[in-house]
Amino acid sequence: MAPVHGYWNLRGYGQPIRLLLAHAGVEYEDRRYNLKGEAPNYDRSEWLADKFNLGLDFPNCPYYIDGDVKISQTFAILKYLGRKYGLAPKTEAEHIRVDLIEAEAMDIRTKWSSTCYNPDFENLREDFIKNFINKCKELSAFLGKHKYFAGETLTYVDFLMYELLDIHSTLEPKVLEGFDNLIAFHDRIRSLENVAAYMKSDKFLKWPLNGPMAKYGGK
Ligand SMILES: N[C@@H](CCC(=O)N[C@@H](CS)C(=O)NCC(=O)O)C(=O)O
Fold first, then answer.
1. Which residues form the GST C-terminal domain (predicted)?
2. Ligand 1: distance of its center to the CA of 33 in Å?
3. CATH architecture assignment, domain 92-192
4. Closest CA to ligand 1's atom 12
5. Is the CB of 12 under 6 A from ligand 1?
6. Which CATH code, of 3.30.70.890, 1.20.1050.130, 3.40.30.10, 1.10.530.10, is assigned to 4-86?
7. Which protein residue has the closest C-alpha to ligand 1 atom 16?
8. Per-residue model confidence as pLDDT tens digits over 1-27
């Protein structure tokens, strides 16, 4: 049976997993759950019908089922796929870089969500963008002349970082201005042969970035 990736019908935490799977050429089912109804009483029943019946130790989405492997937690999934498809760090130096980027990605994602889902989003927007540009300075210096965040090896964190750069650029196209190596990195990932083909296909989910209750990116 083909592996199953399960997540909401939006980009969110699921998208880096989808991009990695596209790059690795995996045939899988992208099971997408819809939130129904209207704010504030969204109906999660489509997901809840599956949530406790999938054999997951920690029922959550995203999840990934690959034969006997049944896992949730974005990073557990990305690391599993990284090992399985040759997208894991190899040397100690690569491990350190990947661990750092993984943790930075988690911090960036947390700030994205807490801002985009905040009822006061419009007032937070300007500072949020400024702070992200400061983070881009650090990311750009860290990436330097390397092709990928681990160095010269493509790893699972590149799909995480690609997605974060992409969604922030969607919110504010200027965020990457002046960071030529981040722009080149963003182009490099979306130009990977299978990723580029995926993005052109009707399997690719371009929108929404967030859930419908978000003040930005949800509708
Ligand atoms: N730490 C988890 C967080 C997952 C999470 O918060 N999932 C949200 C969507 S982004 C959800 O709706 N989970 C379903 C649930 O809690 O029932 C991960 O990284 O995968």
1. 91-209
2. 13
3. Up-down Bundle (1.20)
4. 61
5. yes
6. 1.20.1050.130
7. 60
8. 999 999 999 999 999 999 999 999 999
